[in-house]
Amino acid sequence: MHVPPNADHSAHERASSWPVLVGATTVALSAGALLFEPLWGHVAGWLLGSIFTATLVVAYRVSDRRASQHPRYVRDRRLGRLANALLIAGLVLGSVNAFSLATELAK
To answer: 32: which DSSP letter?
Structure first.
């Protein structure tokens, strides 16, 4: 088999990293929402932490699963671990925001 001299042998298929990067931003914003007293801050923190972060981690997992079908697929374990950590952090922060929201509404 003849391989052209300019063939790129280093091209690998990987999952998209943008869902993890945006997920890190949503977790940080959810943590920042804890500093706000109004109800809208807790609602935004709950949505960002629990709903959006989980959706972005699922988007990363779908992208990873789709990329794994390619014969030149290379798994990035750091992104997978970061996605897991972001999911846990997002759910915890979303729960704390939801508790703060429920406490405010109960007053």
So the answer is: H
